[in-house]
């Protein structure tokens, strides 16, 4: 009876909130959140059986080890397991799960591959972790139209293996073999973003299950056009929403032709400023670069040790050129002139596929290389992004900040970044449980984020707000923008069951 009254009265109370409270977004939002925090339900045996009826007994687990696997990602954030893990196999099951959770006010946390870096999958309020990895079918491949529709659990490498024989590929590459639903949810990016854009530019349509179980197609069911002016851009509302507005179950993506010719090059520089100045000048030349990655001397040393390389331990650029054979040569020649003018070394070329894969695998393994600098550590990753012209200034200032604060006691704080689009990371290995060191790192990341904001940048270029950057969102978006975001959240998820405790403080 108490449960019935709670679920019945809640919507009425929300109507009263909207009609009779002061017309202040923050007041209304605080009231809604207070209700949600006080009324989240625990999962008892009866509710567990209801989930088993939806997805089958084999697709429900309350085992601690399983819940802990789903209560953490690759970040340093403390594991917080959900009360239950479920594996739906289709959108109808996801819809039924959402309806049940909404009726009972149980938190819902979408889970893909668990490769995030901001604690986006930790279950801060308990509830149900919805693992979409069994929804891994490629549904509709249209090579003539350069697009594909997949279920949310399909991984990036799985998709590219499927389409490669057609001469197409999906270029958004965050490094990890992440699920495409998760990549859309976090607006993932990566080394190819300078040429092909992020997930935000490459998602054409989404199928999303809302908190109350309704299923929507953000661009209309079956729509896969390259552009549209039909109403609000619902697709990009959900791209980057980090599971706080709904559960992505299907993604329609743009594909691209595999380039005729590809060549990668490595060049070393005497100092950080020379390397980053070269990046800015290369971009100002209008070269259609495929990738430009910066690694400082700490990062290149870590990559050398971890991946068996032997590059000079100085600030380094990894570059990639794509196009026809002649255009690649022309691009490389112009870039080489710029690099030489900034004191860089001659290119060490990697033209064969095996050589290039080794080079870029070393770059993608940078996170693990950095963690190996301090065995047994956990990693903190920053990912600020600034306008290209401010890139040399912020990286030089950040290097000085690292040296002055001596963050880890050994100055083991590598800088690596997708500098072609103004995005870079500091990967900081810290001792688990060392609160003093963690606080030092938090202070540093706040300074770095504010430094980026002061230069017209953002506190996160690709990792998302998640559980780690909530304090910076109000400073970046401003009070009015933040209140509108909260209004959207309250409209689509009035009980605040979708990934609660994320994005907003």
TrEMBL record:
Residues annotated as transmembrane: none
E.C. designation(s): 1.1.2.4
Keyword Flavoprotein listed: yes
Main location: mitochondrion
An example Gene Ontology biological process: lactate catabolic process
Keywords on record: FAD, Flavoprotein, Mitochondrion, Oxidoreductase, Transit peptide
Function, as annotated: Involved in D-lactate, but not L-lactate catabolic process.
Homology family: Belongs to the FAD-binding oxidoreductase/transferase type 4 family.
Protein name as it appears in the record: Probable D-lactate dehydrogenase, mitochondrial
Organism: Acropora cervicornis
């Amino acid at each position: 009876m108490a449960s019935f009254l709670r679920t019945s009265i809640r919507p009425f109370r929300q109507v009263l909130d909207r009609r009779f409270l002061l017309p202040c977004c923050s007041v209304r939002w605080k009231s809604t959140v207070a209700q949600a925090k006080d009324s989240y339900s625990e999962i008892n045996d009866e509710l567990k059986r209801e989930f088993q009826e939806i997805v089958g007994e084999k697709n429900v687990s309350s085992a601690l080890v399983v819940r802990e696997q789903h209560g953490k990602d690759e970040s340093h954030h403390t594991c917080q397991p959900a009360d239950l893990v479920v594996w739906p196999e289709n959108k109808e099951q996801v819809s039924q799960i959402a309806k049940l959770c909404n009726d009972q006010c149980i938190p819902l946390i979408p889970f893909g591959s668990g490769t995030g870096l901001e604690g986006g999958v930790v279950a801060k309020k308990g509830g149900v972790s919805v693992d979409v990895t069994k929804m891994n079918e490629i549904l509709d491949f249209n090579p003539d139209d350069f697009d594909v529709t997949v279920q949310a659990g399909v991984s990036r490498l799985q998709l590219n293996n499927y389409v490669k024989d057609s001469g197409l590929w999906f270029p958004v590459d965050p490094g990890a073999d992440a699920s495409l639903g998760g990549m859309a949810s976090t607006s993932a990016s990566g080394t190819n973003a300078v040429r092909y854009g992020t997930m935000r530019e490459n998602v054409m349509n989404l199928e999303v299950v809302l908190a109350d179980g309704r299923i929507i197609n953000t661009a209309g069911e079956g729509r896969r056009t390259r552009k549209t002016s039909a109403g609000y851009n619902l697709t990009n509302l959900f791209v980057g929403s980090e599971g706080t507005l709904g559960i992505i179950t299907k993604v329609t993506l743009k594909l691209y032709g595999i380039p005729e010719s590809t060549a990668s090059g490595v060049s070393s520089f005497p100092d950080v400023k020379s390397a980053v100045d070269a990046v800015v000048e290369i971009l100002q030349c209008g070269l259609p670069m495929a990738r430009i990655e910066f690694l400082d001397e700490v990062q290149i040393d870590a990559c050398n040790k971890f991946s068996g390389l032997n590059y000079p331990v100085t600030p380094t650029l990894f570059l990639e050129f794509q196009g026809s054979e002649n255009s690649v040569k022309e691009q490389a020649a112009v870039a080489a002139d710029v690099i030489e003018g900034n004191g860089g070394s001659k290119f060490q070329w990697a033209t064969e596929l095996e050589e290039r894969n080794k080079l870029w695998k070393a770059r993608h393994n940078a996170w693990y290389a950095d963690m190996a600098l301090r065995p047994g550590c956990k990693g903190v990753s920053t990912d600020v992004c600034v306008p290209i012209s401010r890139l040399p200034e912020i990286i030089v200032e950040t290097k000085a900040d690292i040296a002055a604060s001596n963050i880890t006691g050994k100055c083991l704080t590598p800088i690596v970044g997708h500098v072609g689009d103004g995005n870079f990371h500091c990967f900081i290995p810290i001792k688990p449980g060392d609160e003093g060191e963690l606080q030092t790192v938090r202070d540093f990341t706040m300074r770095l984020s504010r430094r980026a904001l002061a230069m017209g940048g953002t506190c996160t270029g690709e990792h998302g707000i998640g559980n780690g950057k909530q304090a910076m969102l109000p400073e970046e978006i401003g009070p009015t923008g933040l209140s509108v975001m909260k209004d959207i959240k309250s409209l689509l998820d009035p009980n605040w069951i979708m990934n609660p405790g994320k994005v907003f403080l």
